[in-house]
Specification:
Length: 376
């Protein structure tokens, strides 16, 4: 259940109530693909890092350890020790990212496992059953993510198939939630808007899937080859046709700048591997711009990574120490860097919400857009 509290332009401040707790929006979902954040961050750490929602991946968990095993262990929340909302991606993005190992047909997609080469079939019904076994708070519909740019004719056919798959997802989700052994009989379903970089296809697809009255809607198939300007254009084109009373999720995006720009265009939820992946390579986000902690100039720097930050890393450690850990290939360096970047992203969303509460989002946007993407 989504409640729109207030707006500033198209930017939305809201609350999204789920069976696992209420999410204050706009919000960033921290990506724990295989039921863990890469970099040695536990579910208990995530609470301290102000994470509201964790995202896990259906395909990866189906391959290993197996969704049946997770169901038998009491579901994903119990398995990983996380009590707040979880969103599971449908496996549809793997249709895109494993393009050399797949074959798409009307019934679904034939995969070759990236782990052991085993042949896998996944369609809308299989994706819903796997996600039901995982018992996430929110299940994503099974779709095809299209590379940008793609030929118009292919995009039209793909979108029509994604809509047919979505109808099957909704029917199967209702069956799964009614099963006597359903761990989460209140599991929600989000549909995904596709259409490449064609505004008219995007708009028509959004109209088509909005009629299905789902629990939320995502914009998928962006940040996969198009420019940032094209992405912003698509969001602006689709937004007027997205239900006002449902949460809006921009999948796989992105940088702090992308997030601020997308909030400005009416998006509520985000996810991206960027904060943790960049951290593991020593790239750390600060309120003055982005630093590479491996640089020589930090070798004797006894200041925090970010003097404006109160994360556990910045409260306790210097740039010089974290640089030393990276240069020594100590795992602790990665962990401290990932903790900092996740705190930064979750604090960014907190500040966006505060700015919206105070009617100062435009001022916030104009102040930080020139700063946060800058490399120091």
């Amino acid at each position: 259940m989504y409640q729109l509290i207030k707006k500033e332009g198209n930017a939305r401040r809201g609350q999204f109530a789920t069976v696992h707790g209420t999410v204050e929006t706009p919000a960033f979902m921290n990506v724990g693909t295989s039921a863990a954040i890469k970099g040695g961050i536990s579910s208990y750490d995530l609470v301290d890092l102000k994470c509201q929602v964790e995202l896990c991946n259906t395909y990866h968990l189906h391959v290993r350890p197996g969704d049946d095993l997770i169901h038998d262990m009491g579901g994903l929340h119990k398995f990983m020790g996380w009590q707040r909302p979880i969103l599971t991606d449908s496996g549809g993005f793997q249709v895109f990212s494993l393009s050399t190992l797949r074959k798409i047909q009307e019934e679904g997609v034939y995969f070759q496992s990236h782990v052991d080469g085993k042949r896998i079939f996944m369609g809308p019904e299989e994706s819903m059953r796997i996600q039901s076994n995982l018992a996430s708070t929110i299940a994503m519909a099974f779709d095809e993510c299209i590379e940008n740019p793609s030929p118009r004719e292919y995009v039209e056919k793909s979108c029509a198939r994604t809509t047919r798959w979505l109808v099957r997802c909704k029917e199967e989700m209702a069956r799964c939630n009614a099963r006597p052994d359903a761990i989460n009989p209140h599991q929600m379903l989000f549909g995904i808007n596709q259409g490449g970089t064609y505004d008219d296809i995007r708009i028509q697809h959004m109209k088509d899937i909005a009629r299905l009255d789902l629990d939320g809607y995502a914009i998928g198939g962006l940040a996969v080859g198009e420019t940032a300007e094209e992405m912003y254009r698509i969001i602006s084109a689709v937004e007027p046709f997205m239900p006002v009373d449902k949460p809006r999720y921009l999948m796989g995006v992105g940088t702090p700048i992308n997030i601020i720009e997308a909030v400005d265009r009416g998006v509520d939820l985000f996810d991206c591997v960027m904060p943790s992946r960049n951290a593991r390579h020593g790239h750390m986000f600060t309120w003055d711009g982005i630093i590479n902690i491996a640089n020589n100039k930090y070798a004797r720097d006894d200041t925090p990574v970010d003097p404006h930050c109160s994360c556990p890393t910045c409260r306790r450690h210097s740039r010089a120490y974290i640089r030393h850990l990276f240069k020594s290939n100590e795992m602790l360096g990665m962990r401290l860097a990932v903790m900092h970047n996740l705190w930064f992203y979750n604090t960014l969303m907190e500040k966006i919400r505060e700015a919206l509460d105070e009617g100062k989002f435009t001022e916030f946007r104009d102040h930080y857009l020139p700063i946060l993407g800058k490399r120091i």
